[in-house]
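Hello everyone,

My group is preparing for a crystallization screen and wants a predicted model to guide construct design. The compound we'll soak is pyridoxal-5'-phosphate. Before spending weeks at the bench, it would help to have a computed complex in hand. I've included the protein sequence and the ligand's SMILES below. Output in C-alpha cell form would be ideal because that's what our pipeline reads.
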Amino acid sequence: MEFTRVQELVAEHGTPILFLSESRSREAYRNLAAALPGVDLYYAVKSNAQPQLISILETEERSFFDVCTNGEIDIVKRCGVRAERCLHTHPIKRDSDIRYALDYGIKLFVCDNEDELLKFIPYKNEAGILIRMSIQNPGCLVNLSQKFGVAPEKTYDLIKKAHDMGLCVKGISFHAGSQNENPLKYIEALDYCKDICGRAALAGINIEIIDIGGGFPISYLTQVLPIASFCQPIVEYISRYFTNYRIIAEPGRVLSGPTMTLATKVMGRSLRNGVWWYYLDEGIYGSFSGKMFDHADYPMFLGSMGGERYNSVLAGPTCDSIDVLYENISLPLLEIGDVLVFESMGAYTVASASNFNGFPKAKIVVVE
Ligand SMILES: *Cc1c(COP(=O)(O)O)cnc(C)c1O
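Reply:
Good plan to model first. Here are the C-alpha cells for the complex, ready for your pipeline.
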C-alpha cells in the first residue's frame, strides 16, 4: 500500500489497524489455484478466521474450507459457506464435535489413530474418513506432524483397520510442515501415498482422495520461490501418478498471509543505555503474536528512511518484558506519533492475538 494512503486511513480509523486487501486476497487464491490446476483448495480457517476474508474467498470459483472446531464451523456458516464445501481436519474430536459437524452437513473427517476411528462407528453411513499420515520436516518453521499423524509405515494398517470396522475410508492426508520451503517434502509424502494406495487397492479398498495439506510458503524478510515454480514438481508428480484421484489441499498461510498490512504508531520513546527504545501501540500480545507462536518475522516499512541512523529497539505496548518485537535494528530517529507499516501480517497474527493488559485488538478495515 502507498504510505500516503496508509496515513489517510490511519487518520480516519486510528491505530493499531490491519488493512485487509480484497484484491490481494483474490490474487493469492487465484495464483495458488493456477499453480495447482485441478486441485481443490480448502482454505485453512485456522490461519485467519476473519469473516471478511472468508466471505471474499467464499465468492471465488470452486473454493472450499478446512475447519477444525465448532467455532470455525459457526464462522463459515455465518459467511454463507455450505457444508458440502467444508472438510473437518481436526484429528481429535469429541463425540459432540462430530455430531455438530455432521448436523451442519460436513461429511469428510480426519483420523490418525484407532480410538478416533471407533468414535465414527455410529456414523459410518454418513462420514467419510481421511487417514492423516505424519511427515517429519525438522527444517521447517512450524512442524505439524509432531502432534498428529500416523507414521507412513503404519498408515496402510490403519486404513485396513478402518475398513474392517466398516468405516468408509476416502483417502489419505498429510501436512508437510508450515512455511515449508522444500517442495520435495510433498513428493516424499506422495511417494508414500502411492505405495499405500497400491496396497489398499489389492485389499479391495478404493482410495479416492489425496489431501496434500497446507504448508505453502510466503515471503517475509526473505523471498521464497514464486508459487507456480514451487508447485511445479508437485503438479508433475500428481499428473504422473495420481490422475485417477481427487487431489485436495488445505492452504492457510499462502492465502491469508499476504492479505493484511499492519499500521502501528510510536506511543513513546526512551534513550536507554545508548539505544533508542520505541514503544508501539501493537505488540506480541496483539497482531505480532505470530512472532511468538508462528516464529515469523514481518517486513517493516517507514515513511522515510533518510537521515542518521541509531541502534534501536521496537517494543509492544504491554508491561511485559517479553513484549519486544525487534532488537538491534538500525533506524532513523522516530518521533512519537510516527506510523510504522508491516507487511505479510495476515497469517497466524490476529488469529492468536489477545486483549492482554487491556489493549484492544487491532481494528480491521477492508481496502481495495
Ligand atoms: C494449520 C493447518 C493447515 C494450514 O497450514 P498452512 O501452513 O498455514 O498452509 C492445514 N491443514 C491442517 C490440518 C492444519 O493444521
